[in-house]
Amino acid sequence: MTNAPAFTVSGARVVVVGAARSGIAAAELLVRRGATVTLTDLRPQIDAEADLRKAGIRLELGGHTPETLLDADLIVLSPGVPPGQTAIAAARVAGVPVIGELELASRWLRGRVVAITGTKGKSTTTTLAGRMLEAGGHHVLVGGNIGHALSAQVDASTDKTIHVVETSSFQLETADTFHPWIAVLLNFSSDHLDRHADVAEYAAAKARIFTNQTPDDWAVLNADDPSSFALAADARSRRLLFALERTLRDGIAVEGDAIVRRRAGGADQVLVPLSAVKLLGRHLLADVLAAAAVASLAGVGPDAMTRAVAGFTGLEHALEPIGEIGGVRFVNDSKATNIESALRAIESFGDGLVVILGGRFKGGDFGDLRGALQARRASVVAIGESAPLVHRALDGAVPVRDAADMVAAVRTGFALAGPGHTVLLAPACASFDMFRDYAERGRVFKREVAKLKEEWSGTRAH
Q1: Each residue of 2-14: b (16+ CB within 10 Å) or e?
Q2: For 42-83, how does the pLDDT look when each residue is reduced to its tens digit (9 = 90+)?
Q3: Which domain, by its residues, includes 377?
Q4: 143 with 275, same domain?
Q5: Is 453 a known active-site residue?
Q6: Are residues 251 and 236 both part of a single domain?
Q7: pLDDT band at residue 227 using 50, 70 and 90 as cut-offs
Q8: 259 within domain boundaries
């Protein structure tokens, strides 16, 4: 499914804005396709400068020069670059086309695209869908907002490839011709309000996943989530629903001890026994349903789906159990970067929970966590820039302690917990006030838990 077969950049002056993973992949792809490429970044230095220059890419670091952008035949944005930046907006007004890295790569893809978006659960669903398709014998490339940038996969794309692409709102807002065969919207709640002007703008970006679909395509939708369902109201594609809570006459659901595909007027098909699911947290079961929906549409059989599910114990930093100290369990959900994700994580545990909350605030209301925390007689350890917001929302409802860094957060959490309790890192915030990204935050959490365990074991030995 090549979205724009005639698309060419040979001889064109292309400026790629943002030299992170996706921007670098886009610049390298463009050079291979014959463009004259400038890669620009706000940072004065970036990784692999020598390799990029050797590849024929001109670097412009320390800022985005308006003249460079205005002189371009095409501007390609890395997902982390807001399209409303003054210099970019001025170039667009002057008639320079502006697209995102996802859009660029998709114009050269062959085969079919499965695009997966949502406020939470994207990475788990994308990974598991890819594994199910591979188990079913398909040639699969998994990437986008997870793993390899889509631009890095173009050269390996074939007519038989199924591209399973995690897509964020940042990628979708600059999409134009992007055309998924299967578009999955897992759920929708307020997020990224530090980037988007309001919830409506965020919703509009998510809804773009359906824009170019035809009646030959599919939209996989969460029947338990009315907000996401509404975003697909204008989609022309066929619908396959999944639901963890609702009863469906037609769609992917849980019946008894199995995930099944129900068909109106036909026999139900058992897809995956629940005993094969190794993931912690009921909300992650919804991601398994969504992945099963994709695999079912691609003709993958129940045996292959079950093998893939049984071999999947989850992703790093997504409700990842990391050990136990003195009967206290530690769980890393650093990927819970918004209120809704943190809520689902909290709901996965029982009494005596201790939650490490905070970081760079992205919008929403910490007060939405109050009921779930109180029901579990939980305590909170507040970290990062948003610690005052955590106090304002939760003081008086649950105990809230401050921690200056992750070292203190882990030790405070352990002190507050008792045997049989859980210390959960579910920050509900971005990481950029204290860490490079959510992955570094999760790794530091795990490192500090390991240090504490070693100290505690040594103390017990003496």
Answers
A1: ebeeeeebeeebb
A2: 999 998 899 999 999 999 999 999 999 999 999 999 998 988
A3: 320-457
A4: yes
A5: no
A6: yes
A7: confident
A8: yes
